[in-house]
Amino acid sequence: MKILLLNPNTTASMTQAIAAAARAVAAPGTEVRATQPSFGPVSIESHYDEAFAAAGVAEQVRLAAEDPPDATVIACFGDPGLDAAREVLDGPVLGIAEAAFHVASMLATGFSVVTTMTRTCVMAERLVQRYGFERSCRGIHGTDIPVLALEQAGEPMLRQIEEAARTALARDGSGAIVLGCAGMAPLCATLSDRLGVPVVDGVAAAVKLAEALVGLGLRTSRRGDYAQPLAKPFTGWAQGLAWEATRAAGGR
């Protein structure tokens, strides 16, 4: 089984760290290929960043369509470009936020999200609403830790995230924590041990759900809005990314 792990930001070291977390939970025989866009923000911490990140996801799945993976994981908690990726790729495409919400809701009657910048909490709230988890998600808590700072997450930063999680559990009455950033993936096991509750990393959750969906022989529906994109010209710097260019290059 081949899983494409797509980091929507352009920081190579973060792509490598996320890939390591994904491979650590992947089943024997699962190949995880990690990639990132050729353009866009080095981290995603605003609506503006996310708009370019979604375009970067579209670029990478258009390229992937020429040699499609069995499943794809979009490794950013905003799930940027998720619908576009599902239009293009037949295999299951999972965003780490959606995957984490599903898994956490199976482990506790309520969960809290602990994320990076407080300004992105509203973005997570909108995902909760979109995916229908308003009754399960009892709170979203920012730590104001920049995304790229997680690459040097030592004990002081770990304690900061731990304290935010403890506050969330107490304030929200939650039974589980969802980590709201792919860069937090390496901290998951330690936090779970310290907190004594399930701590869900969306990268791991998405990889295991992707394996399950592929194992069940399930693929993305082609009925309605997930039908393949309409072939049409693109202009400017995006000219080579048009869906008709993919078809001409030998894709589906």
Automatic annotation (TrEMBL):
Pfam families reported in the protein's UniProt record: Asp_Glu_race
Lineage top rank: taxon: Bacteria
Family from the record: Belongs to the HyuE racemase family.
PANTHER family reported in the protein's UniProt record: PROTEIN DCG1
Protein name: Aspartate/glutamate racemase family protein
Lineage: Bacteria, Pseudomonadati, Pseudomonadota, Betaproteobacteria, Burkholderiales
